[in-house]
Design goal:
The protein is α/β, with parallel strands linked by helices. The chain has helices spanning 2-15, 53-58, 60-63, 88-103, 127-139, 157-161, 177-194, 221-232, 268-284, 298-307, 332-339, 353-362, 424-428, 449-454, and strands at residues 23-31, 48-51, 70-79, 110-114, 144-149, 165-168, 199-205, 237-243, 256-262, 295-296, 313-317, 345-351, 367-372, 384-395, 401-407, 410-415, 439-442, 457-461. It has a 9-stranded mixed sheet with strand order 10-18-11-17-12-16-15-14-13. The structure holds zinc ion (ZN).
């Protein structure tokens, strides 16, 4: 009997494949879009910070690799809404934590960085390049580093050259954030398994456009972005990206850039040819990159909106777009609506912690005198005083407090924390039906997908602020010149950086 058991045991063990060692991938990231025109720093407390197993539990891209032979070693993933330059203290703390994670990780086969690409930190010329080079010193030159990015990243040659693989979102407004991260991971795994030595062709295109002119769902960008997956499929190539960049960042590296990743240096020339062809197409299309919704100065925008009566019109207060890093406390549009006697509008919302506190203390039904705005953005925002009745004060799903104040026909949402209304639920949780009003003012540039879906009409008001759409009016000092359209007469031939 024992003899037979032994035979069976031997048969079972001989049928079993030896366990393949797991591919061990270290992951971390510091994601931020830094608007250098904002005078306030983004501090550590502004960041959502995921550590250790929380990364695996909460990051959707990580779920995709659960139950596979890929072992993900999480460090820190820190993310904050776009705002001013990141404080030196916050940047160094996050960087050091990720590097320490790498030091303690044991054997690593690859590194996946989850970045935005437009991070700028106080005291650094190029904080992202510095971060990767410090990380490189720990993991060594043979461990591949792959990064996923938002296409609004401003990518320098220095930074790109320290990465082995990169890929960026291919949609704006973004609907492919998770799949981009999965792609960056899969490209990395593919390169590790096949022992590729990837190289990246990187080419800056001297074009500066506000994100609102960089919509990928309409032409000309739609067709140009559709070329990316086709290029990535070519023999010897791995991926292709176009970064629209973040124009509200006065840095030498700010511009559109193109990258094509080759499996190894023998395919670099092919990657360069493809990158050059994309770059030339973008340059040639420069005058077609335009706003896709009607744009107008604020007075005209309100007039145009009223002409649509009784249909609802969304007006984007685009200069004070917090999703582009602006302060969210410029009260100009509210002032204009009151001045013009508009009798059915919502202003969602204006950031003013003091005003929210006043409303909370006064309580629902109380008449309050408020002076709002101009407390964060002191350059473009002038404080504005008005009288209104507190309708309600609500704790929201963003963990902030919103006060709704009725001033004549205008419902003003005051927020204790700077943010934009991007989704339908942002209105619903305050008991507001946006389509029940004639004008809905949001501090956005383009409407985010959910709002875009329901908005009968949308007008982008070219309002002043640190996310000014009229970029020619911003005080650029450091940007690489010449750049179109600041230097409208310039000519350009593609050159690799
Ligand atoms: Zn973006």
């Amino acid at each position: 009997m024992i003899y037979w058991l032994l035979i069976v045991a031997m048969l079972v063990s001989s049928c079993k494949e030896p366990d393949e060692p797991a591919i061990r991938i270290l992951t971390g990231g510091i994601r931020h879009e830094s608007n250098t025109f904002v005078s306030v720093l983004t501090q550590e407390g502004d960041f959502t910070q995921l550590r250790g197993s929380d990364v695996l539990k909460q990051a959707q891209w990580a779920e995709h690799f659960a139950g596979t032979n890929i072992e993900i070693i999480p460090t820190l993933h820190a993310y904050a809404r776009p705002y001013g330059v990141v404080s030196r203290e916050a940047f160094e703390k996050f960087m050091n934590e990720i590097i320490e994670g790498a030091e303690n990780a044991g054997r690593i086969d690859g590194v996946f960085l989850d970045m935005h690409g437009a991070l700028h930190a106080e005291g650094y010329d190029d904080a992202q390049a510095y971060f990767v080079s410090a990380l490189r010193q720990v993991v060594g030159d043979d461990v591949l580093i792959s990064g996923s990015f938002d296409l609004h990243g401003n990518m320098s040659k220095d930074f790109v050259s320290r990465l082995d693989i990169l890929t960026a979102y291919r949609t704006a407004p973004h609907i492919d954030a998770v799949e981009t991260r999965i792609r960056a991971m899969e490209l990395l795994i593919d390169a590790i398994k096949n022992d590729y030595k990837p190289v990246i062709a990187h080419i800056p295109v001297p074009l500066l456009i506000p994100g609102e002119k960089g919509i990928t769902f309409t032409e000309p960008l739609k067709s140009i972005y559709e070329r990316l997956p086709v290029i990535a499929e070519k023999e010897g190539l791995m991926d292709a990206s176009i970064f629209i960049g973040c124009a509200w960042s006065d840095l030498y590296r700010t511009s559109i850039t193109v990258q094509v990743v080759a499996k190894d240096s023998s395919y670099l020339e092919l990657a360069e040819n493809e990158a050059e062809s994309l770059a030339v197409t973008l340059w040639d299309a420069r005058d077609e990159l335009d706003f896709e919704v009607p744009v107008a100065e604020i007075d005209d925008a309100i007039k145009m909106a009223l002409d649509h009566y009784p249909e609802t019109v969304y007006i984007s207060d685009s200069g004070d777009n917090t999703t582009a890093g602006a302060a969210g406390d410029v009260p100009l549009v509210l002032e204009k609506l009151i001045e013009k006697g508009v009798d059915d509008a919502i202003v969602a919302g204006i950031t003013d912690r003091d005003a929210v506190r006043t409303c909370k203390a006064a309580g629902a039904g109380a008449v309050v005198q408020l002076t709002v705005g101009g407390k964060i953005d002191k350059v473009f925002g002038q404080p504005f005083s008005f009288e209104g009745t507190v309708k309600k004060v609500v704790r929201t799903s963003y963990n902030d407090t919103a006060a709704i104040v009725q001033a004549g026909g205008i419902s003003v949402v005051l927020l204790s924390q700077r943010r934009s209304f991007t989704m339908i639920n942002d209105f619903e949780e305050l008991g507001i039906d946006p389509l029940g009003h004639q004008i809905v003012v949001v501090k956005l540039g383009y409407l985010f997908p959910e709002l875009r879906e329901i908005a009968p009409h949308a007008i982008m008001a070219l309002t002043p602020g640190t996310a000014y759409q009229v970029i020619e009016n911003l005080p650029y000092l450091n940007i690489r010149r010449p750049v179109y359209p600041l230097d409208p007469e310039m000519t350009w031939q593609p050159q690799f950086d």
